Amino acid sequence: MPKLVKITTFMDDKVGRGAAEHELTKLVNDGWEIVTAGGGGKDGAPIWGFVILMKNDPDAVLPEDSDEDVQITY
What does each C-alpha distance from 46 to 10, 40, 67 come to in angstroms? Predict the structure, then answer.
């Protein structure tokens, strides 16, 4: 079954964390499952986080291969 993937980001401060919790609550209650999360920052820089979610969607249209230059770094 096709799946949808969503990546949400947030800033790990009082406001950002609260907004992320609110958004993640809505997404989880809408059927999204949290797959993984992470984040980080450098000395003196704000800490950013991300959450990757996935959801089954029988109506999802899978994208055809594209020539877009997508770079994923680890």
Answer: 10, 8, 34
